[in-house]
Specification:
The structure holds two protein chains of two kinds. Chain A is built from four helices and eight strands; from the N terminus they run βαββαββαββαβ. Chain A is of the alpha+beta class. Chain A has two domains: about 1-70, 2-Layer Sandwich (VC0802-like), CATH 3.30.2130.10; about 70-125, 2-Layer Sandwich (Alpha-Beta Plaits). Chain A has a four-stranded antiparallel sheet, with helices on one face. Chain A starts with a strand and ends with a strand. Chain B folds into two domains: about 1-330, Rossmann fold; about 330-435, ANL, C-terminal domain (GMP Synthetase, Chain A, domain 3, 2-Layer Sandwich). Chain B contains eleven helices and 23 strands. Chain B is globular. Chain B starts with 6 loop residues before the first helix and ends in a 6-residue tail after the last strand. Classes of the chains: A alpha+beta, B alpha/beta. At the A-B interface, β1, β3 and β4 of A face α11 and β20 of B. The structure holds zinc ion. Zinc ion binds near residues 250 and 257 of chain B.
């Protein structure tokens, strides 16, 4: 799955400016998460047209990166998230950050994992019998 | 009662001082002309010969020496004695070109230390005092200068250098320090630490402090005096002229007496180079009257000051200079360290960043804050806070290596550094440095 990250200043309206820009260009956001510090925020989004979103943001002067991240469908039962984390840590895969989002289908949830090695993470998940969404 | 280290000079009749300066200047110009080809060329270009200088009234005929000359002549070009006669160098921080390396013969060291001794005695120092020197030691002139002065006075000298503040206070208490020498911001910090340790000025024996190497205000003086229970004295100097002690404050605290037997001071118009009459505000220029190894004639300090020879209640007849009121160049003094914005630009380019940066300075609790904002490029941006923090740390450490002080780094988005008329505002200085 392709994730787009955007550098935003910690100023009122900077988040709205990004989402408005994307909406005006007909891009739908499926997930959004922010890591923020006292100085700045890093906005991470999953969009329906990631390449187009990346292009528009870059053209508008934003610091933007497009990354491959690992998505995993979360089963609605106890311990399923722990199972994923354990599968990754058993293979020595470091998770930089993770966040959840729901799909358009009711009752379906996903987790996004930003790891140091996507290939290894996918293999580790498969080994543990967990299917990754690529 | 006012004490003097060398009363016969410090309180000499003005006519006597002036006669001494005239005689020394004539001799010094001859010495420099004969031994410093770099300056001889400058004099020849101006068509002035040593014999044209008969007294300080003729000094305007001589060419100036500026920082650019120090850069061109680095390292030995302004040396006026054989290197074998030199016993010491001192230096400022910074890169080659910005760094000043000054040479000293034993005579020059003695002269410099005597100047510092006068400052210590003017602050009430005697051989019974315990003098804690918390200026940095090493190439920086602060520590070695006051250390030498303290020896000359006969104080018990504590060569602490700066830093390790709790230990400073420990020594201060255990050994009963009575005089503290350091930068004013460090003195303020020691005062705060004392309070944080649950102590008061009654727990220490300090009576005076000699503080210099950076600008400070009367408000800061009052803070320091209250927090340490002392009387705080200003001291001025620069590596180019020897180090601290070129001028020093007396009990009247209305300006610093210049050691005129060693340094001739002028105030000039920084734009035209014209000498201004006494009492007018302008750039301070110094001539070393009797230094042997590194005798700069008409050195432009870039400090903006006023000179006055009004009668001083301390009894000294030495002319007084005001605290510097500003600079005629873009040099910043941050935590006692000289910083040129161009040095920061050099590091940024070396580290692969854009030269789009802004320096923000403030003074919080009497300590300088130093923030540098730099624009990131697409390639430098990362989606993790960890990576950006690491980049900021690497940049801060590269700047620390160059400048000697640690900035707080902030990587920012492109085009966020304020531009006015297409030109970026490089420095925002919110400190109140001058009264
Ligand atoms: Zn005086």
């Amino acid at each position: 799955m392709k994730q787009i990250s955007i550098f935003i200043e910690n100023e009122k309206g900077s988040l709205a400016a990004v989402t408005t820009l994307l909406a005006e260009n007909g891009i739908d956001l499926r997930a959004l998460s922010i890591a923020d510090t006292t100085d700045y925020g890093i906005l991470r989004i999953m969009a329906d047209k990631p390449e187009k979103a990346h292009k528009i943001l870059t053209e508008n002067g934003y610091l933007t990166k497009i990354n491959e991240v690992v998505g995993v469908k979360i089963a609605d039962k106890a311990g399923s998230l722990a199972k994923i984390i354990n599968a990754l840590s058993d293979e020595g895969i470091g998770v930089e950050y993770t966040y959840a989002f729901t799909s358009a289908k009711p009752g379906e949830a996903f987790m996004v994992f930003r790891v140091n090695d996507n290939e290894k993470a996918i293999a580790a998940l498969e080994k543990a019998g967990i299917g990754a969404v690529i | 009662m006012e004490r003097y280290y060398q009363k016969e000079i410090e309180c000499a009749p003005v006519e006597e001082l002036k006669a001494m300066q005239n005689a020394k200047l004539v001799k010094q110009v001859k010495h420099v002309y004969e031994h410093v080809p770099y300056y001889r060329d400058l004099m020849d270009k101006k068509g002035v010969k040593p014999e044209d200088i008969k007294s300080t009234a003729d000094i305007y005929k001589l060419p100036f020496i500026s920082k650019a000359d120090l850069r061109d002549a680095y390292p030995y070009g302004l040396l006026a004695v054989p290197l074998s006669e030199c016993v010491r160098i001192q230096s400022t921080s910074g890169t080659t070109g910005r760094r000043v390396v000054a040479f000293y013969t034993q005579h020059d060291i003695d002269l410099w230390e005597e100047c510092c001794a006068r400052a210590i005695v003017a602050a009430g120092g005697t051989k019974d005092d315990v003098c804690q020197v918390a200026y940095g030691y090493g190439l920086f002139t602060g520590g070695p200068g006051l250390n030498g002065g303290s020896h000359k006075v006969g104080c018990l000298t504590l060569p602490m250098s700066s830093g390790n503040t709790e230990r400073q206070i420990q020594f201060m208490r255990d050994l009963g320090s009575t005089i503290l020498c350091c930068t004013p911001s460090y003195a303020a910090y020691i005062g705060e630490t004392l309070k944080d340790m649950g102590l008061t000025p009654n727990d220490i024996k300090l009576k005076a402090g000699i503080f210099g190497a950076e600008p400070w205000t009367e408000a800061m003086r009052k803070d320091i005096e209250a927090s340490l229970g002392i009387k705080a004295y200003d001291i001025y100097g620069l590596t180019e002229t020897s180090g601290p002690g070129v001028s020093f404050e007396c009990s009247e605290q209305t300006g610093m007496h210049i050691n005129e037997d060693h340094f001739y001071a002028e105030i000039i118009d920084p734009d035209t180079g014209e000498v201004l009459p006494e009492g007018e505000k302008g750039e301070l220029v110094f001539t070393s009257l009797d230094k042997e190894a590194f005798p700069l004639l008409r050195y432009r300090t870039r400090d903006i000051c006023v000179l006055n020879r009004k009668k001083c209640s301390c009894g000294r007849t030495l002319i007084k200079m005001s605290k510097p009121m500003g600079r005629s160049d873009d040099m910043l003094i941050i935590r006692g360290v000289n910083v040129f914005p161009s040095q920061i630009e050099t590091v940024l380019l070396e580290q692969g960043y854009t030269p789009n940066y802004r320096i923000e300075l403030d003074r919080v609790n009497n300590t300088d804050t130093f923030d540098v904002y730099v624009e990131m490029s697409q390639e430098q941006f990362s989606d993790t806070v960890k990576d950006i923090t690491l980049k900021e740390k690497e940049l801060a450490s590269a700047l620390k290596t160059m400048l000697g002080i640690n900035p707080k780094m902030h990587l920012v988005a492109p085009k966020t550094i304020t531009r006015s008329e297409g030109k970026a505002v490089r420095v925002i200085d919110r400190r109140k440095l001058h009264d």
